[in-house]
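Entry 14. Structure prediction run on the chain below.
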Amino acid sequence: MRYRSVADLDNDVVEWLPRLPRALEVIVGIPRSGLLAASLLALHLNLPMTDVEGLVEGRVLQPGPRYSADVSGLLDSPANVLVVDDSVLFGRQLQAVKGRIGAAGLQHTVRYAALYPAPGSEHHVDFFFQTVATPRCFEWNLMHHPWVLSKTCMDIDGVLCRDPTPAENDDGAEYQRFLKGADRRYLPSAPVRWLVTSRLEKYRAATEAWLAANGVEYGELLMMDYADMAARQAAHAYAPFKAEIYERTGAILFVESSPKLANEIARLSGRSVFCAETREMIDPALLPRVRRKTDDLRHGVRARIAKALHTLNAARRNA
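Output returned:
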């Protein structure tokens, strides 16, 4: 999985500056992700910016006290404008933007740019920083990209909601209260294909109720099948459980909250894992090789997962 963080984006914008025209006067961001790239570019160039509708309507955002020039009426006369997006894949959104701006009959010199077009999409823009092939994801829209989420495994605690405190994690009444009212964290705006959690199967109903109440859409909810928390802790199979599902489903990404587990899942699966706590993409090629005894543990976990899924599917067929 090719990944760019917000920090990568800012560094790349700075590196990109010498390759852009010197005579730019206004930076225009394409909502929504393009606004982040445009804002960084405008800040580094110390130029005013606006969005697409602002350009069409002849207004720019107030730049703040460090920009001393008067921006009122800036777009009343012809200006050198750069319209910016973060990426381009098929170019459909960019073509729609070009159509909107073209239909406005503006007198400005308008050029188009994107930091990360996919290979073969460079022709849609006048300037780009570098091509980034698919599959890819960016930190700033990871939880809102329908295609990525449709092929993603995602943890719950520490990602969709906060982790329980030690006092709440009692496998009893306090934990039940936590499950019912856990504070939200990062909620996806499109369906996630697989939710994969260390929560116990006996808490499925409470988990499903929280997900429904918070508008989280998903394909499957996969949980650990142990009698109680003590049995789960004794098995210590959190990472093998998640890595096995990651491999079996053919997902392109796993989103995990814990840095330790994220590293283990990446090691075991040999696939990229995004750690929600550290906001980094873990590349398994950069991790130490997994010891052989871990393979034996995974084999046992695989058998338990298969048995649990068989039981769950049988129950669904008979329901």
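The radius of gyration is 24 Å.
Filed with the rest of this week's runs.
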